[in-house]
Amino acid sequence: MPEEISRCPHCDKQLVTWVPCDESGWDHDLLLCENNECSYFVHGRAKVCGDYGANFAYRFCYDPKTGREIPIVAWCGGDLSLLKGRCESGGSS
Ligand SMILES: [Zn+2]
Question: What pTM was computed for the model?
């Protein structure tokens, strides 16, 4: 059995259960770090924006079934965007 973790190893926040959509190929829940301050997310976003000029990043995600780390691509819209002005439609929250 893989080790169960409930907190993000990068920011120590509680992970949330994330149910992937059917098309993603997963048939079970994953654990996702939704912290926008998470170093994993912040560094990944800075790297992606810097290297590719793309407006997305990766969130830390953990598969409790395999014990594997799975980087989940997260679109950085609205306030999360480091490329403000490029994105036409901001999130409405
Ligand atoms: Zn985190």
Answer: 0.70
